[in-house]
Amino acid sequence: AGQAHGAAYGSGVYLAPNSNVSFSYMKYMPGWKHSMFKSSTLGCMAMCEIIKHPSLKGQPNPYYVVPNEEYLATRYFFVYTATTNASVDGAKVKPPPVTW
Which of 2, 4, 3, 22 lies closest to 76, judged by CA? Predict the structure, then answer.
């Protein structure tokens, strides 16, 4: 995937501690009219866990910039309609237990 926005804080995957920041970057696309979401326009956002790694020390500053996507694990995937933007504060969400 190519980079969709600037890299003011360096190259990598940008994450914010609160989803309100991410909403301005989320693209809404046409959905399937017969889906359970009952909306013709949908947007998606992932909540990711970042592993502890020495190269990520001192973050967020003001965002998390993860240079290697292997340092991320998707824990939740949110689907929004064009009329809903419920905020999610990552600091208040307990990750699910990891099972292999």
Answer: 22
Of 66, 62, 37, residue with least CA distance to 50: 66
| DSSP letter (8 states) at residue 18 | B
φ/ψ (deg, to 5) at 85: -140, 60
Q: Indicate the pLDDT class of residue 91, thresholds 50, 70 and 90.
A: low
Q: Is 90 left (phi over 0), alpha (psi -120 to 50) or beta?
A: alpha
> What does the radius of gyration of the chain's CA atoms come to, in whole angstroms?
15
pLDDT tens by residue, 76-86:
888 888 766 66
Average pLDDT, the chain: 79
**Rounded Cα gap, residues 41 and 82, in angstroms:** 6
